[in-house]
Amino acid sequence: MAAVAAKVAKDRAIAEGLGTNENPVKFLGQDYEELRAKCLASKTLFRDDKFPADDSSLGFKNLAPNSHQYEGIEWKRPSEIWEEPQFIIDGATYADIRQGQLGNCWFLAPFASLTLKPELLARVVPKKQSFEKDYAGIFHFKFWQYGEWVEVVVDDLLPTKGEYLEFLYSDVGNEFWSALLEKAYAKLNGSYEALTGGTLNEAMEDFTGGISEIYDLKNAPDDLYQIMLKATKAESLLGCSINKTNPNESDTTSQGLAKDHAYSITGAEQVPYKGKNVQLVRMRNPWGDSEWNGPWSDESSEWNDVDPKVREALNHKADDGEFWMEYSDWVKEFTQLDICNLHPDSLTSNEQHKWSTTMFNGNWIRGSTAGGSLDYPETFWENPQFWMRLTDPDHDHDGPTDDPCCTVIVGLMQKFAQKRSRDNTSTIGYAVFRVPEEMQNKTDIHLSKDFQMTGLQPHSSRFTNMREASKRMTLPVGDYLIVPSTLEPLKPGDFLLRIFSEQSAVTLEVGNAVKVDPFEPQDSELAMTKQIKDVFQKVAGDKDEVTAKDIQTILNEHLSKNPDLKSNGLTLDTCREMVSLMDMDGTKTLSLTEFKILWLKLQKYINSFMKNDDDKSGHVHAFEIRFALRDAGFTVATKVQQAILQRYSENDMILDFDSFISSLIRLDTLMMAVRYTGLEDDVANSKDSSQSCSRYFKLLY
């Protein structure tokens, strides 16, 4: 009950805005205001016992105790390093972010980009933090994690060697906001050393809540520069990198670009040059130096033929690690582009470039919803399914007027069990199918493997073992089905599915409604049951009632005569549940009329079991349970299906005959309870399918 109460409380908190940037989740349960007030009252400086200033917070390999890099590290507060430490001096700038002894440029590049967007930076670095007024040795920062914002509290004990910070630092020695933010991000990910492994797109999303897309520049789409122009105007974050092809090659190119290093893209402009427009890209090296020295670099002659006013506006000449390149050179030199498209809540402009967004949390459960990719057609359709309707084309769609298109970015993110660890990750991806006209609006039906026989080819993301698989698609107006999956079946995991569309889109989870329509014999069927009467009287004798034990004897004798049904019979517990279902007068026995109804129901359920026991093994596989239940008259939400499997399935994710019949009897009893308690209309009319599912789920158990 405590777990249920906690879940209800969390759902209520989320409904009230918990997880937004304004009301973030307290990471590890630490409340900044409460901790700070406590320290001020006791006149002590905060020491964080959840991320202590010791070797456990540094790392596990290169920063583990007795490692070379670990030697000489001391934890000091800023006041022990400088006489007058400051949080931020004259605003946050690129110069505040200088890489230390961690290989974490993957998050420094987008971090540095935030300094160009004060409204975004303020969402990560809350204001009114200081080493002066009400200083208590405690600071806080906000990061986006799996669909919600979290607030991370840290003390200001920082790793140093001698008189200098060991990791991130500012050019202005007594400025510490960036070093403290790095510590908060290290805490979020488990340790400082955990920050040596990551990707640009992960950091971009963690700082903004946006959705990222990755482009292989060796196979760049023809319209990539237009995508980049659009992205920069939409306030997106962009970054790029050059991947080494082998470990023995040089760390830099012949024209000054660093390999295996993340650059942030700070602009894209088409510049008039010698009678034509040249496509330029502006980048910045988070190191603050090592600039490109080829065409359009700071000192190149190309700038001499650019209008002075344009040249001045582009600020092309500054020794700050920022530089311009021609797009054609940029595509040749770099190997990967990352774009992070921002969530509407992150943007301040009212222009039309804001995205419409939807998020769904889901899971793959072994034997239930972990169906694997399309390479496994027998189980693929058991994966969670999501329906999307696109009705409004982009304002600037490129297709003909009779085929308007919509731009959509779909991102599938797996939730890591351990921060920044891929030891137990799955390879994930998704397929997007155009729904044929005859299937439109049937969002209550979880589509089966028969759907793929329509011959429609899906739009598929690439499968990856990274945190997220995402893809930009231009789709004609219409209805679509999104099916997220792991590459192989039976791989469990939790995921977040996000859909960003340029115009509004209607999205929902498929098959989340509950429809229970158990078989009810008609009067004519009850009248034609002399055989049932004879069977009943054979066991009941002079009695007018039969017990659960009598029913077990009757049914097992009948089942043993069916050569096509492999079964060890029904247990006494299952027969007791049958009595509970049909006993209207509370005698714990069944009359002839009640027994007739039960007998006819069981014939329906037996036929459903035999239909879905394809290999005649006497079992129904967990992947087939959804369709077996549907054949018997029960369309259940995924959560209810999973509850059935958890309660009734064996270790190898199969249901034997007794378990299958028992689960149907329980569902039938459930429907009776719903009707009796008056919840039927409430559930049927509920606009919230998850609420409908929840009501049934609670009644089931």
Q: Would you mind describing this structure in some detail?
A:
Helices cover 30% and strands 21% of the residues. It is an alpha+beta fold. It has 4 domains: 24-208, no CATH class; 211-346, Cathepsin B, Chain A, CATH 3.90.70; 356-511, Sandwich (Jelly Rolls), CATH 2.60.120; 516-700, Recoverin, domain 1. A 6-stranded antiparallel sheet has the order 7-12-8-9-10-11. Strands 17-16-19-14-21 form a 5-stranded antiparallel sheet, with no helix packed on it. It has a 4-stranded antiparallel sheet with strand order 13-20-15-18, with no helix packed on it. A hairpin with a 2-residue loop joins strand 9 and strand 10 (276-284). The longest helix has 21 residues, at 592-612. The chain is elongated. It starts with a helix and ends with a helix. Residues 1-9 and 682-701 have low confidence and may be disordered.
